[in-house]
Specification:
Number of strands: 5
Number of domains: 1
CATH class: Alpha Beta
Structural class: alpha+beta
Strand content: 15-25%
Strand order of the largest sheet: 1-2-3-4-5
Largest sheet: 5 strands, mixed
CATH topology: Aminopeptidase
Order of helices and strands: EHHEEEHEH
CATH architecture: 3-Layer(aba) Sandwich
Length: 161
Amino acid sequence: MNDMPQITRLPVVRIRTVRREDLDVLTAMVSELAAHHGDSAHIAPDVLERDLFGPQPWIRALIAESGREAIGYTILAPVYRANEGARGLDIHHLYVRPTFRHQGIGQNLVAIARDEARRLGCSFMTVGAATGNFKAHRFYETLSFTPRPVTGMRYSQSLAV
């Protein structure tokens, strides 16, 4: 009989800003997240390159890696509350690959995103989760996010030519 305690080895994780050489794996993880939600992704590396590194960068992204393996990411988008004159960042995507979940990686991605928001002079962060995604609700609430009531419909209009 072995009385030795079971040791769980957590991966050594590094979180850093996405670089151009990450675009293929970032695109793959965006597709994995879409599939996780029963959706499909219609994104290509060149579009992410435009939005992350183009003349007018639109988003920011962080990547979590263990060794040389990308294991998660977050995409951050600017938001603004004009009535308060307040800048914020929205966690547009947060994803950790299934075999690396429940090890604190998502929490660390959020913590680094929070640091980035503060560095940019933001006074708040937002994140959305589907109405029935109770695991996500609990996760964000444990990280001190406060639920905000939905106050009305959001509308969209295509600007495609």
